[in-house]
Amino acid sequence: MKRNLFLMPFLLGMALCACSLAPEYTRPAAPVPGEWPAGEAYKDARPATAADAELQWKECFLDTKLQQVIEVALRNNRDLRLAALNARKVRALYGIQRAELFPTVNATGGMVKERIPADLSSSGKSMTAEQYSVSLGVASWEIDFFGRIRSLEDQALQEYLATEQARRSVHISLISGIASAYLTLAADRANLQLARFTLEAQQASYTLIRKRFEAGLATELDLRRAQTQVDTARGNVARYTQLTALDRNALDLLAGAPVPEELLPADLSRVTPPKDISPGLSSEVLLNRPDIMAAEHRLKGAYAYIGAARAAFFPRISLTSSIGTASAELSGLFGAGSTTWSFVPRISIPIFDARTWAALRVSKADREIILTQYEKTIQTAFREVADALAIRGTVDQRLAAQQSLVDAVSETYRLSNKRYTMGVDSYLGVLDAQRMLYAAQEGLIVLQLTRLINRVTLYNVLGGSKEQ
Predict the structure, then answer these.
(1) Distances (CA, A) of 326 to 110, 330, 380, 399
(2) Domain ranges of the chain
(3) Closest Cα partner for 142 from 329, 316, 340?
């Protein structure tokens, strides 16, 4: 028995160093071009700097109030908390699977006391028998010669790593979601200010035209046209009042707690813009995105599962052994000559089991499915970055054109109003100019928001930044 005990470390070492039947993993080629799209829409894209990939989120989102809102969300958001708990759970499951590599050692103690009747007793007399025992042993430990358990352990590890990347993806999405909601609230508050200013101007114009109408200097048609502008402006005020309330609710939900009023933006012009991040020249940067890394970990896990399926075709060797002491009297339990031991190796050789072949086919099909999902994830990521770059390459031109339009329509409105006051034109020209000016100003705010949201989107689709 002592010799068997000496063999235990050797067998344990062999099990831990078992061969693996899993196919060798090689990262598949990315099914996307090596460089980002080029053309008219991308001509304003700036070159990358080495520091872009090393930025922390506070270096990307520079507005101090926005930083405080993000910190509130990182502490209280339930989606992020669930992602962290899921990662913790999968890590524990990996620990359970890894424990299969090691023997389970149990210490047991027992006492048996029974009365034996005379006709069953070897002495022909009834008697009471007692037995005391203490033992230390290993129960049904599978020695992993062919790497079945090691492959399952590797699969569990890759699943944990994929879940950890999923948690990181939620972390990045939360930061970008908070920033987008914050900027949207700022834009809608700017639109609300514009609608209120427009309403005040329309009410003043309506009051002036009503006095002219009462004095016989304006027609009733002009008065009714002015009233339609007032009513339209009132509707716009109500609409943006509603939108700002909805934006506030969305921001509170993402933050996981009510955001204090002092941290909310007054309007878009008072928000510090996020840093403009560049993806660089090569699309290989996508491989650092957490969703792509998670997909690759699952692909590695599929390779490991094939190894486990292959190992099922080979013999399984398990070991049960124990050493202890037993005696008919408690006082003699640890006396000389009371030692007991057992050594029960067992080998199971598969002869025919159709399920084994089916399991191998399933594992190979899973690998192909996960490989396709991995490639689709890369293609989706490439498209998301390309779209964001197309917006960034053209949004400044659109902003410049929209600002020029606002300036031109403002001058048109001024001249139309002057001509109406002088009696040269009807109020219809003023009415058209007012509508065009409000629409142009509203469009300018939308484009300003698009420009800032595009920077947030680039932060998100490029895989975020270092966690702080």
Answers:
(1) 9, 9, 68, 90
(2) 19-101+144-314+357-461, 103-143+316-349
(3) 316
How far is residue 39 CA from its own chain's centroid? 32
Determine whether domain 19-101+144-314+357-461 maps to CATH 1.20.1600.10. Answer: yes
Q: Virtual CA dihedral for 168, 170, 175, 177, nearest 10 degrees? A: 160
With helix as H, strand as E and coil as C, how does 116-181 read? ECHHHCCCCCCEEEEEEEEEEEEEEEEECCCCHHHHHHHHHHHHHHHHHHHHHHHHHHHHHHHHHH
What CA–CA distance (Å, rounded) separates 453 from 40? 21
Whether the Cβ atoms of residue 45 and residue 389 lie closer than 8 Å to each other: yes
Q: Model confidence over 33-87: pLDDT tens digits?
A: 988 888 888 875 555 444 455 678 898 999 999 999 999 999 999 999 999 999 9
Indicate the SS3 state at residue 328: coil
* 322 CB-side CA count, 13 A: 15
List strand residue ranges (DSSP E) for 262-305, in order: none
Whole-model pTM?
Answer: 0.85
Measured CA to CA, the distance from residue 60 to residue 268 in angstroms comes to 17
